[in-house]
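can u pls check wat happens w/ calcium ion
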Amino acid sequence: MKFQTDIAAGDFFLQVMSVLLMLVLVCPVASSIYLLATDPCGRDVAVLKHSIKKLENKLLIVTWQVEHLQKHKYFHPVQPAVPSTEPETDTASGGNHNSSGTLDGSDVMPMKPLPPGGSLLVHDKDCSELFDRLRPPSGFYRIRPKPHQDPFLVYCDMEDGGGWTVFQRRRHGKVDFNRDWVDYKDGFGDFKLWNDEFWLGNEHIHSLISEGRNLVKIDLMDWDGQRSHAFYENFRITDESDKYRLQYELYSGKAGDALTGGRGMVEQWSACLSGMQFSTRDQDNDRYLQGSCAQENKAGWWFNRCHAANLNGKFYRKGKYTGKYDNGVVWGTWRGLWYSLRHTTMKVRPLVFLDIVGSGAGEI
Ligand SMILES: [Ca+2]
């Protein structure tokens, strides 16, 4: 959390009125004196104008804060609709999505060979269609989300219920995620091996999730091998003209709703990422007026002022870390802001996939 204002709206208006009253009283006097001297009151007026400008800025922030709190007053993390009666484990179900809660297949069987990188003939718009059609093993495949689009390579997680298109993965810290806008737009990393790290690219992610109802699952693992996860329904980003603004709806899962900043309204005011534009070190689109969240946090991500979740942050090799900024691979509602995670995966499939196929229970 980078910036807070404790000023109450009522107190603020009193301050504004006080300043205006001072101006009304001072300025006629200043005008008279001005006749006798060159500009004796000019400096005071300038100071008062500066104070008014600062108060106007505070008014803007307080007004936005009030609107935000009103908008999100019902936006609390949603508990699973049907609580599990089974003992909770690290791979327990994530609420009403009936997922196995495991990481993708590459974590479970790390050394298994991958299938070839996919046929040049592309039939499927995403991994869920490929799963429905062929039930292939996990691996890299070519997909084409939209008919006019060139196919591109993605990692398909065909376990954990199957049909997941993976668009972000951290595993070993060998890929630098502190990159410019164009890299995050086009994608970067490696797309060959079972444990390769990558960002699929905002253009590809936009084409994958801009239509229809989907479910994003975020898999997390700490340095002790403990795992957790979060689900978001109807996860989507706008196009580049709107700086890939993030929007999502219902949360469920075990790791906490860090994308929204947690349960506290103050935290949500500074860290809620819903509605935030994407920022990189060379494009500051955050709401942190005093600086660049992307530069401080060494990542391209959706930032507010700045975040409680940043899966593209700096890769620390021991989990807990210290420093000037909470710039690790962070999911704050699970391990806190000063713990950098070891494995992360962000993956998506259609919501309707669960309804038709019923494979969300991970029985394959
Ligand atoms: Ca900024």
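The chain is about 30% helix and 15% strand.
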